Amino acid sequence: MARGGWRDPIRRRIVHPVQAVAALVVYGLFAVLPVGVASAVGGWLLRMVGPRLRRLSGVARRNLAAAFPDAGPAEIERIIVAMWDNLGRNLGEFPHLKGLADGDRVTVEGAEYVTQLRDDGRPGIFFSAHFGNWEVAQVASRRHGLPLSVVYRAPNNPLVEWLYARRCDDTLDLIPKGSAGAKRLLKVLRQGGHLTLLVDQKMNDGIPVPFFGRPAMTAPALAEFALRYRCPVVPTRVERLEGARFRIVVEPPLDLPDTGNHHDDVAETMRRVNAVIETWIRARPEQWLWVHRRWPDQVS
């Protein structure tokens, strides 16, 4: 048996079921609370716990110090606590995502760009980041009748996969990352469909693209798809306003380069994408997920 292989049966038969039960209990507790209360409880919980998680908060602290060299220790700690609050609120709001589309807790700016993509007869790509409550972005497409295919990272525990699908409505087509998922993405675009991608995570075999003044290994898939199909690429962010209230901002499509050099056009497209995301984060740093090891000089 390969080294460490003995852990797999234990993980499948003991660890995964225990994790699934715990996830179900947490999901159920937040589900029975009103969304505003669930958000507040989740925020309070991670404000208390998150800063004490030394490894994760240490990553956030180093990232912030590098991104904002003029920020003092007190400001960095304030951002870290607020980041954990935002993440905890996301957790509390998770069971309520379907209902947010029908209420007044979410406003949409730039809805004309959603309807433009819906009606232009072409494929299109929305991109976002782990910013605010990024899961709320589905509200914009649902309200304006635009079916979306959403790329996501499947959980390590397959027993909790159903929770992810449960929080989505029928307008979303969930596509897991991987080779099989990439083929489905190409099929969606060939058929004139629309994708939404989160593009702010490190990809070890990606391309180096500037992000906060340092090269960050970035997945080039968005640029490859956009340049291949010459389709609109639309920045979309979800800002948390106060408590469980949000503003979805849909921006005008990016101008795509067309120099004739595919390699350079891919790099330039992703440079523009990273520049947009950096602008969002600089304006509201507490709403981004700083615990991610985004740069190649950090050990995964």
Task: Write structural notes for this entry.
There is one protein chain. The protein is α/β, with parallel strands linked by helices and 300 residues long. Helix content is 48%, strand content 16%. The strands form 2 sheets. It has a 7-stranded mixed sheet. It has a two-stranded antiparallel sheet with strand order 6-7. Helix 1 (7-32) crosses helix 2 (35-49) and helix 10 (221-229) packs across helix 11. The model has no long low-confidence stretch (mean pLDDT 88).
Main attributes?
single chain, 300 residues, alpha/beta, 7-stranded mixed beta sheet, two-stranded antiparallel sheet, 9 strands, 48% helix, globular
Strand content: 15-25%
Number of H- or I-type helical stretches: 11
The gyration radius over C-alpha positions equals: 20 Å
Task: Please tell me the overall pLDDT.
Answer: 88
DSSP helix fraction? 40-55%
Main sheet properties: 7 strands, mixed
How many beta-strand elements? Answer: 9
Strand arrangement in the largest pleated sheet: 1-9-8-2-5-3-4
Encode the helix/strand succession as letters.
HHHHHEHEHEHEHEEEHEEH
Straight-line N-to-C gap: 26 Å
What's the arrangement of secondary structure elements?
Elements lengths: L6 H26 L2 H15 L4 H14 L5 H21 L3 H4 L5 E4 L1 H9 L4 E5 L9 H6 L4 E5 L8 H6 L5 E5 L2 H12 L3 E5 L8 E5 L2 E5 L2 H9 L3 E8 L5 E5 L11 H22 L17
Parallel strand pairs: 1-9, 2-5, 2-8, 3-4, 3-5
Antiparallel strand pairs: 6-7, 8-9
